Model the fold of this input.
Amino acid sequence: MRWVRYIAIAIINGFGVVIGIIWVAVPTTVAQPSLNYQLALSGRQSEGETPQSLSELYKLRDRLKVQLDNLAKTPDSAPFPGELWKSAINRQQSQTLTQQLQNVQSQIQIEERAKYNWDDAAKLAAQAVLIGRTSNPSSATWEQSQRVWQLAINTLRLIPHDSFLADRAIDKTIEYQGSLSVATYEMQVARSVEKIRAEEEEIRERARKEQEKKEFARREIERKEQEKKDRARKEIERQEFQRQELARKELERQELARKELERQEFEKQELARKEIERQEFEKQELARKEIERQELARKELERQELERQELARQELERQELARQELARQELERQELARQELARQELERQELERNQQATSQPTPEATATPTPAPVTPAASPPNFFFAGDTNRDGQINEQDEAGKEQWSLSKGALILFNDRNNDRGKIPTWKQTKVSAPRRAAMLSQVNLTLSENFKTSQLFITADSIASPHISVFQKTGDGWQPVDISGTQPLVFSTDIVLGVEAKQFADRNWNGTVNLKATALNNGQEIASTTIQMGVSPWMIAPNTAPVTEVQVSDRGAVNSEFISQLKEAVEPTGAQVKIIQGDRTWMQDTQKNGYVQLPEKSEIRQFNVALKSNSEPEKNPPVKSTQDRDLKVVKIGNPRSLDPVSQWSDGYGNLQVTPPIPGHPMGRVYYGNSGNAGFNPEVLDFIQAQRIQGPPVDIDTSWLLTRQVDEIINFIPTQTPGKYVMAIASPEAGVKLLEELEGRGYGDVAINRGLSTQTTVSAALQNRALIQHNLYLQNQKLNPIIEKLKREFLVGDDQIIQVPVMFGYSGYAWWPNMVNSVPVNGKLLVSNPRGPMIDGVDYTQERLRQLLLPAGVSVSFLDDRYYQELKGNVQSATNTVRKPEERPFWQSLPNN
Done:
C-alpha cells in the first residue's frame, strides 16, 4: 500500500502549487499599465526631453532653478511704457517655471520612495534565496523562505504606479511570485516527507514496544525464580545470624561489665585529679590577684607621680609666666621711668635754651627735639637661640628678627618624620618614649650659643603644652643625637655651642595648627638668669599638579589581561625620561591607593625636596604602600581612619577623587578640588588635613553624585601646553559625544561600529535610536556638567579659551559608555589617553582624531593606550596608574601672594 500513499502525496503537492499561484496573484494596484508622467513644461519643451530616470529629474530640477535665477535677475520694471508686455511675459514665465519645478520635485520624491522600496525588496529576495540554499532544508526552512518572498512582493506593491520603476516592479513581482510558488511547493513536499517519516517512526516504535513487552515477560519469569532461590538462601543466613548474634551479645555483656569496672576506677582517679587542680588553681588565682593588686597600686603611684609632676610643671609654668609678667612690668616701669627722666631732661634743656634765647636767639635753639628710637627686644647678651628664621639655609644673627612669630612666609620650618614607618597601631605623636632620629638629615637645626659666663648654669628646652606631644627635640653630642627632655625637668648637656635638631611627629591637622613655641632657659641656683623663645612650624604637605614633570609612572601587573597595556605604557613613557614601575599585588586602581605629594625645606645652596605620599585607608591589607624608586623619597603616611561606606559610595575616598589645579590666581601652588557625592563625600579628616596646610585650600567640591565611581578625575583634567606655565582644562561633555554621533550619521556612517571589541559595541545609528540613552546624556550636560563648568570658571578663574569639552557618553549608572579620554595622564609633554574604540573612517579612528584636533592648538602629543581590561571594570588610564611628579622648584614661601 505504500505506492498508493506516494500517489496521494503527489496529487496534494500539485494542488498546493496551484493554490500558491492563485494566492500570490498580481495585485491590480501594481499590475496597471505604467503611466508616463508628463511634466507641465513650457510649450517650447519637446516630447523627447521628458525625463525617463531619477538622474534626469535631478538635471531637469537644476536646469529649472537656473532659469528661475536668470529670470529673477531681469529687472521687473520696463524702462519705457511701451515695453510693459515684457514684464508681464517674464512674470508668466516665472510662474510657469515655478510650477514646473514643484512638479519635478514632487516626481523626485515619488522616484526616491520607489527606489528605496525596490532596493528593500531586492535585499529581502536575496535573503530568501540564501534561506532556500540551506543544506537539507526542512518544512520550517521553506516556510520561512515563503514568508520572506511574500514580504518582498508586498514591498514591491508599495512602488507607486506613476513611478519609472512601476513596469519593472510588475515584472519583478511576477518573478518573485514564481519563486514564492516554488517555496510553497517545496514546503508542501517537505511536510509530506516529514509526515511519512513520522508514520514510519511510529510503526518502528510500536514494534519496539512489542519486543520490549515480550522481553519484560521473560525477565519477570526469571526474576520470580531468582526470588524463590534468594528466600531460601536468606533463611539459612538468618538462622546463622541469630546464632552469631547470641554469641555477640554474650561477649558485649562481658565487655560492658569490664568497662563499668574501669569507668568507676577512672572516675575515682579523675575526682582526685580535679581536686588537686582546684586547689592549685585557687592558689594561682590568689597569687594573680595579689600581683594585680600590686600592679594597680604601682600604676596608681605612677599616676599620682605623673599628676604631681604635671602639677609641678604647670606650677613652674605658672611661676614662669608670673615671673615673665613681673619682669615685663618691671621693664615697662623702668622704661616709663627712663622716658620720664628723658622728658624731664629735655624740658630742663629746653628751659635753659629758652633762657639763653632771650639774650641771643639762634636757629638751632628753636629746633624740635627728636626722641630716641626704641629697639625691639632681643636675646639676652651672650645667649643666642634661633633657627633658620629667614629660610636662607644658614643660622646667624640675621635670624634674630621675627623669630618669635612664625608664618607660611617666614620662620624656622620643621619636617614631619614618622619613625613608625606606617607599621605601629599607635600614632607617633601619642608615644611617650623618644628614640634617636631615624634620619638625622631631616632634623631642623636650632643653635644655642652661650658665653663662658653660663658654664655653671643649667640649660633647659621647653615646648608649649599644646605642641609638645607632636614634636621631638634632639641634642647633637659626641655620642650622636640624644633625645632632649622638653618638659623642663632634665637639663641639656652643657656646651657653649649647642646644636639641637627638631622634628615633627605629624603634620598640621584639625587638632594642631603645626606651630610650636620653643623656649631656652638658663638657671643658676634655681634662679632664671636668661631666657628667650622662638616659634617654629611644620613644613606643609603639598600635591604636585598634573602639569608638573613626571619621574615615575606606577602600574599594577594583572597578568595576561593587562600585559599589552603595560607594554604600550612603557613604549609611551620611557622616551620622555620617566620610568615605569610595575607593582606586583592585588591592586587594580593604582590612583586610589595613595596620593603622592612633597614637602620643602631650605638649604644654603638649594631647596631640599622630600616626597611624601598619603596612603589610602580602604582595605590596607590589599593596598600596602608603594615605595618610589626615587632617592629622596620620604614617607608614606595615613590620615584619618577607614569609613564604612555603602556599595554605591565605596569609591568616594579613593585618591583619584582628590586632585589639584596648576597655579591659579590667588593660589600659586594650585588649589585642591574633590568629588562630592552628597551623603558620602570625600573623607572629611583628609579634607581638614588639606585645609590645615593653609596653602592649597580651601578645597573646592565638585558634584560627582551622578558618577558610578563618584570620583572627580572622571570628568576634569588639567593638561599642560607647549607654552611653559600655560594649560588647558579638559572636561567631559556628553553633549559633544551626542553631536559626534549625529555628525557621523549625517555623513552617511550610521552603520559603522562604535565601542569596537567592547561589551557595549553597537553602531552609530543604533546608539542614536536609543532615545533614552541620548536624553540621559543631554540631561547630564544641562543639569550636571554645565553648572560644574560655571563653578570652575568662578573658583579657578578659567577662561572659555582654556576649556576643552571632550566627547564622552555615560551609561545610566554613571559609567563611561566608551573609554573615557578625560581620565588621562600628562607625562612630560605627552598625554596618555584611553583608546576610545571609535568608528573607523578611511582607516582612522574618528573619535581619536577629534581629540587630536581639540588639543592641536595647545600642541599636545597624544598616545592612545589599549585599556580594554580597565574599561570593562569601569575605569581608564589615570585610574589604573599613579605618578611621582617633580616638586615645584621655587620655594612655596617665595610664591605666596604676600611675597
